[in-house]
Automatic annotation (TrEMBL), chain B:
Gene3D superfamilies: 3.40.50.970
Gene Ontology biological process terms in this record: pyruvate decarboxylation to acetyl-CoA
Protein name listed in UniProt: Thiamine pyrophosphate-dependent dehydrogenase E1 component subunit alpha
Organism: Acetobacter garciniae
Xref: PANTHER family: PYRUVATE DEHYDROGENASE E1 COMPONENT SUBUNIT ALPHA, PYRUVATE DEHYDROGENASE E1 COMPONENT, ALPHA SUBUNIT BACTERIAL AND ORGANELLAR
Catalytically driven reaction(s): N(6)-[(R)-lipoyl]-L-lysyl-[protein] + pyruvate + H(+) = N(6)-[(R)-S(8)-acetyldihydrolipoyl]-L-lysyl-[protein] + CO2
Cofactor: thiamine diphosphate
Described function: The pyruvate dehydrogenase complex catalyzes the overall conversion of pyruvate to acetyl-CoA and CO(2). It contains multiple copies of three enzymatic components: pyruvate dehydrogenase (E1), dihydrolipoamide acetyltransferase (E2) and lipoamide dehydrogenase (E3).
GO molecular function, one term: pyruvate dehydrogenase (acetyl-transferring) activity
InterPro entries membership: DH_E1, PDH_E1_Alpha_Subunit, THDP-binding
UniProtKB/TrEMBL annotation, chain C:
Classification via Pfam families: Transket_pyr, Transketolase_C
Taxonomic lineage: Bacteria, Pseudomonadati, Pseudomonadota, Alphaproteobacteria, Acetobacterales
Source superkingdom: Bacteria
Cofactor names: thiamine diphosphate
Name of the protein this chain belongs to: Alpha-ketoacid dehydrogenase subunit beta
Gene3D superfamilies for the chain: 3.40.50.920, 3.40.50.970
GO molecular function term, any single one: oxidoreductase activity
PANTHER family: PYRUVATE DEHYDROGENASE E1 COMPONENT BETA SUBUNIT, PYRUVATE DEHYDROGENASE E1 COMPONENT SUBUNIT BETA
Annotated ranges, domain Transketolase-like pyrimidine-binding: 4-178
Length: 419, 322, 324
């Protein structure tokens, strides 16, 4: 299941809002979106405070005709709230702040959600409004997105999350019944679990998925037990062993890849496969300028160039992406921890940890996936994956294969998990 | 030189009378706004088509131009079917699909009017090639104008016909004009049959307004083709007295020139030749019969129903008809 | 079955049909004594005589027009036009002649075949390397086939000769030496209007014509290494199109790549793409991707020519694009 974080309310309860006016800004998958009022009225109630995270489907707030007629629970919109990170012109029904009394005028202007014809057909057959389906980074809803959404919805209605859980960043997010394989995702340096969203959408809900956050990343504001890869791995192993997860499949990106290698070798865990996206640990080189520049950057102008270095196609780095990254870097605790991690693991633009021997000893089926245009860690490191690993080079792809070519990564992941 | 019988002269005279009446009727209907699209009349040129086709057997073939009314009638198409086709009627010999420029009838050996100038020439050579491959004695006769004589395919076709000795007769209906442009502005030579030598075929010039002269030249050429001796070019000198088409604004033909050619009207020449043979009353009776026939055909054509559209599916781009 | 080259399979088809039907005859430039510049008609003049196997003057426009009326009057001509680049010379015969008479003069038949070969990759330059498929496939009333395998070359040529409508057969200069098993049966034909599934797949359909089928097969192998299961369909007949096969494949994969060696704008690939949009829009999960020659002349020098021709890598990249 995907989640949105409320970044800012632009109106206070009781304030009048005009149709089309920005009411609330939400964020997901590294993109922020302003949500406009679908109708004029008064912001009657804020249900999700700033910085709280809720699953898709939650009502964020209520717009009523007047404050004199506070909406009753029954007037809450039947259509669940949603976030629309990139799709232009969200449908009015999709807006999170829905008009409460039925008399409240909804705009009738036709709006369009970019969507493949097949996805449109599947959604119509399932009685789902396109506007309710989160639009992925490519800006267009495909069949897999609808299917993933349907799977999420099914899961939500079967076992709704307890209210308290929604906001805790590193809680497991299972997307499938128990029988499906559990895939655990570990993000890279400076990232967080939202970075996996494009890939998760491409998985059609094929697996149960669990996105974990490294110490000092995203909403995991704890410090690691030690500032080395072992310390990071311990923290993740702790989350995984809190309750027995059974067999898991590990996916790690960059620094998360190095962590995943150690976890795969951890006898406490039952790791069935290991998928590494441009992992740290297979050679000494790393783009030190990127590390330093990224760690130091606090504003859009300084972050954007480094983000563009991450990807092959710079157009993927949208303003929303940049802004979301800037916001994530406003937390001083997080920044401090990351700075420590960077100087410990990548001193002087060098990778301090060599995990080749560990990787070569693993008996777990391993895939290494690398973008041919990676400018952060040289693609040549893939050659050091050892004779047992399957290596895949992705053309026109930089350091973020799961964002840049999510369908391909999803294919490869299905391959290894199902084999 | 073949000697024409009186009967042969009478048959050709009757056909020319009918064609002339048809052209005049079309002129009248056009002025009344009852025709559709441009119509290319052959007034004054009837002797070429009627004389040349009279030398053919029903099993032989012709290809013709956008100005083919005399050729259609000469080759044996029913005047009602031709007229109805020109008027876009369901009874037309092509059901109204073709119009006056593209009439064709495989059974009658009419492989079409052809409104791509010059295209009737390789069309005739192709039929002749077919006859040669099948070893039949069929002859193919091609009508084309002095405008078409300037096309590349005219050269290509005559070269191949001469080379392979194809059973084809090229009848150049030289009416002096390619649309509005006089032949002197289209070719360095006035007598285009000069070119026949270059294709190793005989080239003869005849008076295209004398049906007997055209007929006699055609009989010789057809016989030569049928024997396997190859093609002949007949250059029939004539004149287009009614302009390019019913849409023609005129102004480029010399009035004096038109008057001079009108005096040499092929019907008059034919009349003068028949007068000593059958007498004025018989000729008058022929004219009256033709007028009566034309009046009755006209009435029937005007009353005939228009066709109903049907999609033509054999040319669909998909294997399943959609 | 006999192992033979594509050119030999065509030769065998011509020989068998000439034996079967005395009204079949061949004409074209350099086809008789020399046996054709691609040796497709080798030995046929000696076997059938100089009347039924004719060398012609260089007069494409007239030869094509002659084929039309010869076919209408009882023979089955097979005309060889040496290069598809000369198709513009024969377009009047196809567009203004052959295409209209079946409709205008209902009942006439025009059983002629116009064989030609196109495409690049042989260093033949801008006037001898084009695939002008769209020019002929555009014409209502003309069938167009483009066999890739020797067996299809034989089967489709025999079917074309027996067909009552005009058929243009598009061969490819780089296919003549392809060797494969070819059925010996005298009555072996391949039905016009039937596509062939070359590789079955699940994720994306690649619809290709002529030599591009071979490149698409290679692309499918490249894609398979990435875990992408591509289906490759050899259309075989460009007109009339096997729409049921196209629809069935898209209903399975929901993504389509169309590949044709001709130009892109108003090209055959454009028509395929529009056809898919017309008839399978609601099955599509991504925009149809086109792989074609860029809109420019085919250059001469090897690296330049290689750069413009569609190939397996370009096809695979397009397939990946539909899945991204």
């Amino acid at each position: 299941m995907e989640a949105v974080v409320v970044r800012a309310w632009h109106k206070k309860p009781g304030e009048p809002v005009a149709q089309g006016e920005t009411v609330v800004t939400i964020e997901t998958a590294k993109a922020a979106t302003d949500i406009e009022a679908p109708a004029s009225g008064v912001l009657a109630e804020i249900r999700v405070p700033t910085d709280d995270e809720v699953p898709i489907g939650a009502v964020l707030g209520i717009i009523a005709d007047t404050m004199a007629e506070p909406p009753k629970q029954a007037d809450a919109p039947a259509i669940p709230a949603s976030e629309q990170p990139r799709c232009p012109e969200p449908s009015p029904e999709a807006a999170p702040a829905a008009p409460a009394p039925p008399s409240s005028p909804l705009t009738s202007a036709p709006v369009r959600v970019p969507c493949s014809p097949l996805a449109r057909r599947i959604a119509a057959a399932a009685g789902v409004k396109l506007a309710d389906i989160p639009c992925p980074a490519r800006g267009r809803i495909r069949a897999a997105d609808v299917q993933a959404f349907l799977a999420t919805r099914k899961n939500t209605s079967a076992a709704p999350l307890p209210p308290g859980q929604a906001g805790s960043g590193h809680m497991p997010y299972a997307t499938q019944p128990e029988a499906a394989p559990l895939v655990v995702f570990i993000h890279g340096f400076g990232g967080d679990r939202h970075g996996w969203n494009p890939l998760l959408r491409c998985l059609d809900g094929s697996f149960r998925t669990l996105t974990l956050e490294l110490p000092g990343h995203g909403s995991n504001k704890a410090s690691p037990s030690a500032y080395d890869i072992g310390g990071l791995a311990d923290s993740i192993a702790g989350l995984l062993t809190q309750q027995d997860k059974g067999a898991i499949h590990l996916v790690g990106h960059s620094l998360g890849g190095a962590v995943a290698i150690l976890l795969a070798a951890d006898p406490r865990l039952d790791v069935r496969s290991l998928t590494l996206l441009a992992p740290v640990g297979l050679g000494p080189e790393i783009d030190g300028a990127f590390i330093n520049g990224f760690v130091a950057a606090r504003q859009a102008a300084s972050i954007a160039p480094w983000l563009r270095r991450l990807v092959h196609d710079p157009s993927l780095v949208t303003d929303a992406f940049v802004n979301a990254t800037v916001r994530a870097r406003t937390d001083s605790t997080v920044c401090e921890i990351q700075q420590h991690i960077a100087s410990a693991l990548f001193p002087d633009g060098t990778q301090a940890n060599d995990l080749r021997a560990t990787l070569h000893r693993l008996a777990v089926p391993t895939k290494v996936i690398w973008g041919e245009s990676d400018r952060i860690i040289p693609v040549q490191h893939a050659r050091n994956a050892g004779p047992m690993a399957a290596v895949h080079f992705l053309p026109d792809t930089g350091h973020l294969p799961h964002l840049e070519t999510p369908a391909m990564v999803a294919h490869l992941l299905r391959q290894i998990v199902r084999s | 030189m073949t000697v024409l019988s009186v009967d042969e002269r009478v048959v050709m005279h009757k056909r020319m009378l009918l064609v002339r009446l048809l052209e005049e009727e079309l002129g009248t209907l056009h002025k009344a706004g009852k025709t559709r699209g441009p119509i290319h009349r052959c007034d004054g040129q009837e002797a070429v088509g009627i004389g040349a086709t009279a030398a053919l057997l029903p099993s032989d073939f012709i290809t013709t131009t956008h100005r083919g009314h005399a050729h259609y009638i000469g080759k044996g198409l029913d005047i009602y079917g031709v007229f109805a086709e020109i008027m876009g009627k369901a009874d037309g010999c092509c059901g109204g699909r073709a119009g006056h420029m593209l009439i064709g009838d495989l059974e009658a050996g009419v492989i079409g009017g052809n409104a791509i100038v010059g295209a009737s020439i390789p069309a005739a050579s192709g039929i002749a090639l077919s006859a040669q491959i099948k070893k039949t004695s069929d002859v193919s006769m091609c009508f084309f104008g002095d405008g078409a004589a300037q096309t590349g395919i005219c050269h290509e076709s005559m070269n191949i016909a001469g080379l392979w000795k194809l059973p084809v007769v090229f009848v150049l209906e030289h009416n002096q004009y390619g649309l509005t442009v006089h032949q002197s502005v289209q070719s360095p030579v006035a007598d285009l049959s000069l070119r026949a030598r270059g294709y190793a075929m005989p080239g003869v010039i005849v008076d295209g307004n004398d049906v007997a002269a055209v007929y006699q030249a055609a009989v010789e050429a057809v016989a030569r083709a049928r024997k396997g001796d190859g093609p002949t070019m007949i250059e029939a000198k004539t004149y287009r007295v009614e302009g390019f088409s019913t849409s023609d604004m005129g102004g480029y033909q010399d009035a004096e020139e038109i008057a001079r050619w009108k005096k040499r009207d092929p019907l008059q020449i034919s009349y003068d030749a028949l007068l000593p043979l059958i007498g004025a009353p018989a000729l008058q009776a022929m004219a009256d019969d033709a007028a009566r026939e034309m009046a009755s055909v006209t009435q029937k054509v005007l009353a005939a129903p228009l066709p109903e559209f049907e999609l033509f599916t054999p040319s669909s781009p998909y294997v399943e008809v959609l | 079955m006999t192992m033979m080259r594509y050119a030999e399979a065509l030769n065998q088809a011509l020989r068998e049909e000439m034996h079967r039907d005395p009204s079949v005859f061949l004409f074209g430039e350099d086809i008789a004594r020399y046996g054709g510049v691609f040796k497709v008609t080798r030995g046929l003049m000696d076997e059938f005589g100089a009347s039924r196997v004719r060398d012609t003057p260089i007069s494409e426009q007239t030869l094509a027009a002659m084929a039309v009326t010869a076919a209408m009057t009882g023979t089955r001509p097979v005309l060889e036009i040496m290069y598809a680049d000369f198709v513009p010379l024969v377009l009047d015969a196809l567009i203004n002649q052959a295409a209209i008479y079946e409709y205008l003069w209902q009942g006439v038949q025009m059983p002629f075949v116009l064989r030609t070969q196109g495409g690049g990759g042989a260093g033949a330059g801008a006037q001898h390397s084009k695939a002008l498929d769209s020019l002929v496939a555009h014409i209502p009333g003309i069938k167009v086939v483009a066999p890739v395998t020797p067996a299809d070359a034989k089967g489709l040529l025999k079917a074309a000769i027996r067909d009552s409508q005009p058929v243009v057969m598009l061969e490819h200069k780089l296919l003549y030496n392809q060797r494969a098993e070819v059925p010996d049966d005298l009555d072996f034909t391949v039905e016009i209007g039937k596509a062939r599934t070359v590789v079955e797949g699940r994720d994306v359909s690649i619809f290709a014509t002529s030599r591009m089928v071979l490149e698409s097969q290679k692309a499918a192998e490249l894609l398979a290494r990435d875990g992408i299961s591509a289906e490759v369909i050899d259309l075989r007949t460009l007109r009339p199109l096997d729409l049921p096969a196209i629809k069935a494949s898209i209903a399975k994969t929901h993504n389509a790549v169309v590949v044709n060696e001709g130009w892109r704008f108003c090209g055959y690939a454009a028509e395929l793409s529009a056809t898919i949009m017309d008839h399978a829009f609601h099955e599509l999960d991504s925009p149809v991707a086109r792989v074609t020659l860029p809109d420019m002349p085919v250059p001469y020098s090897e690296p330049l020519e290689t750069a413009v021709l569609p190939n397996a890598e370009k096809i695979a990249a397009a397939a990946r694009l539909t899945l991204s």
